[in-house]
Design a protein that fits this description.
Length: 89
Amino acid sequence: MRAPVVYSRINFRRPFSLTGIAARQPAGSYSIETRDRHYWTFPFSWEKKTKTTIRLHMLSGLQGSLHEVELDPRDLFRALESDRLAVAA
């Protein structure tokens, strides 16, 4: 069974932080990937696991690099909501 993948872009208008990511991230547009995996478990059932990642630019040296970091979608939604509330105020 092939796992569905959903790609999306989100925009932050202010710097933000997420649980599990040490540095505060700058405002901007970010790529999000959500992948569902179905796997067989004992005793005789299918289970689904969802993995959500965000693509971040990490500075290392002069150029830096892109890294995909796994995160909790609820934490991402809280950060987006906080960003929207801060902009509205």
